[in-house]
Amino acid sequence: MNELEWQEFQKVVLRVGTIVAVKDFPKARNPPNLLMVDFGNRFGIKKSSAQITDLYLKEELLGKQIVAVTNFPAKQIGPLMSECLVTGFHREGGSVVLTTPDLDVPNGTRLA
Fold it and tell me: Looking at the domain 11-97, which fold is it?
């Protein structure tokens, strides 16, 4: 495994945000959810897509805090311009479990 220097890791900005809207994204090959994530007044609301439809209902996602990379450049995903990368872990079989704080944290807080 390649080791990562501390200075390299510090370049990755991981922040907490709250999912404020969830929409279907049927135009994609494997339809994900389109998420609108609120990172607080300083960073605003950012769009992302996430392949999480097999584990999470849209109603369950609303109000859920997640962890996302917020300093990647925007990426075109079909007709969507994704503005952040929502993080998660693959389970056996490929389902993705979202990375979430176990207690509430102010939106926009950076990973310590």
Answer: OB fold (Dihydrolipoamide Acetyltransferase, E2P) (2.40.50)
Q: How far apart are CA 31 and CA 110, in angstroms?
A: 29
Could you tell me if 87 and 66 are in contact, meaning their C-beta atoms sit under 8 angstroms apart?
yes
Q: How far apart are CA 43 and CA 47, in angstroms?
A: 12
Q: Domain segments of the chain: what residues?
A: 11-97
For residue 28, name the pLDDT band (cuts at 50, 70, 90).
low
Q: pLDDT tens digits for 32-68?
A: 889 999 999 999 999 999 989 889 999 999 999 999 9
